Amino acid sequence: MTRALLRAEAVTREFTSRAGTVRALGATDLAVRPGELVVLRGPSGSGKSTLLSLLAGLDRPTSGRIHLDDERIDDAPESRLVEYRRDHLGIVFQSFGLLPVLTATENVEVPLRIAGVPPAERTDRVAEALDLVGLAQHGGQLPEELSGGQQQRVGIARALVSRPRILLADEPTAQLDSANAAAIMDLLASLVASQGVAAVVSTHDDSMSDRATHVITLG
């Protein structure tokens, strides 16, 4: 069996305030390999978003370890975490996270501009990413001119344009109707399989579990 690309070992997250200590995430294990789709399930407050933040290096666990291949990420310096997110991760947000003044093409292009990819290569890769999500003919439109489902497809294209090894998606269908939600879930599953990405997706939607390689229930 292929070795896990991303692993979490007994990770927890606690927050301390005047009111005491709050455990946002109980001890959790996770392993995801290239081409696998791991779904995180559980009620609101069970720690799904917290776990994704830890996996993205946006927060650090109170205890436990997170590995990319054989490298520990949980205790890496911030400069290394910036490289980790830039070079290995694609992130899909439930709120779409598109810049309203930029077209679909320009939104997808943002990570490549940040990475300093040459203009000609940017053009080719953005066109490829939009084609992958079925929006090849919509690159010139602003977010307000697109449906919710199309906006989320732009967000997925933006996450994939850097050709990440790992895709993290936090409730990517939460703001969509049932038909668009099903289409986005099918798209994510097919892209993981065809692109060989290791994906972790949090969701309240039970039907997403049918598309998963593994399901982890929190809370």
UniProtKB/TrEMBL annotation:
Residues 6-216 form the ABC transporter domain. InterPro entries: AAA+_ATPase, ABC_transporter-like_ATP-bd, ABC_transporter-like_CS, ABC_transpr_LolD-like, MacB-like_ATP-bd, P-loop_NTPase. Keywords: ATP-binding, Nucleotide-binding, Transport. One of its GO terms (molecular function) is ATP binding. Coiled coil: none annotated. Gene3D superfamilies: P-loop containing nucleotide triphosphate hydrolases. This is ABC transporter ATP-binding protein. It comes from Frondihabitans sucicola.
